[in-house]
Amino acid sequence: MSIFARIREDITAARTHDPAARGPIEIFLVYSGLHAVWWHRASHALWRRGRRFVPRAISQLIRFFTGIEIHPGATLGRRVFIDHGMGVVIGETAVVGDDVLIYHGVTLGGTGHSSGKRHPTVGDRVVIGAGAKLLGDIELGHDCAVGSNAVVVRSAPPWTTLTGIPAHARPRRGAPAETPDAADFYVI
């Protein structure tokens, strides 16, 4: 996929998720969440080639301009949209799936000083509400919804809604009948 096709895809995702979006030119020019994701792709490519300083410098420069910090080691899927992104932090070993919507103030962070995988893995089509914190090496299944200001410290199956501090899981409305019950998976 060409870089221009990817940009068009991201702009379409922004228009889908943001009812205030007026048009593709406005989105291209002023949506800081998209700018952060686009620059992350460049820094991530360098990071994967073994470069360390330049990608980190790019991520810090973009944090200065957008208020969004995405570590160059993090893996982001396609059509990730960060809406009103100020204060978003995505850690080094985080993995974010396709079509994920992230609101402002979200942290995908680690706990402690352990090495290896220490940040969350987020499935496809997940919505993460404003101020939510996902901490540690946890996994959220596809189609989950995380409520605003929830603190998620345990993994959750697909089609789960997570709310509270610490977050409690319950089946998400509209879940397919064959989806496992969240109570069976997540100890409340």
Automatic annotation (TrEMBL):
Name of protein: Serine acetyltransferase
GO terms for biological process, alphabetical: cysteine biosynthetic process from serine
Catalytic activity: L-serine + acetyl-CoA = O-acetyl-L-serine + CoA
Keywords, comma-separated and alphabetical: Acyltransferase, Amino-acid biosynthesis, Cysteine biosynthesis, Cytoplasm, Repeat, Transferase
InterPro entries linked: Hexapep (IPR001451), LbH_SAT (IPR045304), Ser_AcTrfase_N_sf (IPR042122), Ser_O-AcTrfase (IPR005881), Serine_acetyltransferase (IPR053376), Trimer_LpxA-like_sf (IPR011004)
Pathway membership, UniProt: Amino-acid biosynthesis; L-cysteine biosynthesis; L-cysteine from L-serine: step 1/2
EC code(s) of this entry: 2.3.1.30
UniProt-annotated location(s): Cytoplasm
One of the record's GO molecular function terms: serine O-acetyltransferase activity
One GO cellular component term noted in the UniProt record for this chain: cytoplasm
Enzyme superclass (EC): transferase
Family: Belongs to the transferase hexapeptide repeat family.
Biological source species: Leucobacter chromiisoli
Pfam families xref list: Hexapep (PF00132)
Domain of life of the native organism: Bacteria
